[in-house]
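U., I forgot to send this yesterday:
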Amino acid sequence: MRRIRCETCTTRPGSVVCGVAADVLGALRTAGTTMLYRPRQVLFSEGMPCAALYLLCHGAVKLYHSDRFGRVHILEVAHPGALLGELSLRDDDAMSISAEAVTETQVLYLPRERLAAFVKQHPEAAVRFFAALSRELAVARRKVRELALKGAESRLAGLLVQLAGAEGSLLPDRHLQLRYTRRELAEMIGVSTETAIRLLAALKRKGAIAGGRRDVVIADPERLTRIAQHDETDVRPSDHPA
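Result:
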């Protein structure tokens, strides 16, 4: 993977550095360290110190939590422009989640001390960081709300809509190239793998999607969106992971 410069980055308009002056952009780049990851490489893990933020410049990153039984729960798949990681004023606070590259990924690693010096020098940039972190908080709250209020079929349809809306995912012929296994899809919506397979089959029967194991055709985007917005299927408690 070739390193992408901020000045030529096509995803910059959707990130925290959108519209900043050239000198501020240069100062931010100096404050951080550009890091490249291959698929499946871990950016950070639960239990690590909360000592940095990661600005996702290119690629996709899976954010997940492992419970005490070793089961993985995928909380979000982050796309370019997202701020990852956690910061704390206390040295003994630890990361609550892990992050793993799904595709070839580039991030700007911003350690706490250098980030603090940057925002002191450029206070207008601090507002952008606050706004970006607020968006991430809103995403987390929406996820909690969906898990509490939506049925599994609606959550799966919503996930497919979200993935189709990600840059580069939806091809002109409406093929959605899935980079995730059925197990990973199940972890993203909080059900068992068997339930996720059954729900995909149900969406195919309804004509919302078509296709095979790795490529999903969004056959009827409007219907898929309606299913995502309305709870049409109840999943028994036994369908959820034990």
